[in-house]
Amino acid sequence: MLTQLLKGVIGQDDILRHYNASLTYVEMPCAIRGCVHYYKGIYDILINKDLSYYKKKKTLLHELAHIELNQLCQSNKDLFAFFIDSYEDDADRYIEKIKKEITD
Q: How far apart are CA 32 and CA 50, in angstroms?
């Protein structure tokens, strides 16, 4: 789905509907760009409202990558906490891979 979003085949609202996700811009400490939570089948994406337009878009892509990589539906929450740095890197690499595929 992220590939279709980056190609312009679908829009932001389409992908949010597909993943049953909501997007909210909120006040956050400047060091935090965003996060995503999963609860009872709904993804809640929170983005720092003070980011620039382009950083908001990049952060949204990153959070959607977590959803697409199915990183939030872990049955063992302790394991999730143990691998959080790896998941962050995986999401960034996934976005870069998709961007490379589109431009090649």
A: 10
Q: What span, in angstroms and rounded, lies between the C-alpha atoms of 86 and 38?
A: 18
Give, to the nearest 10 degrees, the angle between helix 53-68 and helix 84-103. Answer: 110
The Cα 58–Cα 33 span in angstroms is 10
Which amino acid type is present at position 99? K
The count of structural domains within the chain is 1
The residues near 31 (Cβ < 8 Å, ≥ 6 apart) are none
Distances (CA, A) of 93 to 25, 41, 88: 24, 26, 9
Q: pLDDT tens digits, residue range 32-87?
A: 999 999 889 899 999 999 999 999 999 999 999 999 998 876 655 666 666 678 88
Can you give the pLDDT at residue 31? Answer: 94
| Structural domain boundaries enclosing 69 | 2-103
| 3-class secondary-structure state, position 10 | coil
Please report the pLDDT score of residue 80 as a whole number: 60
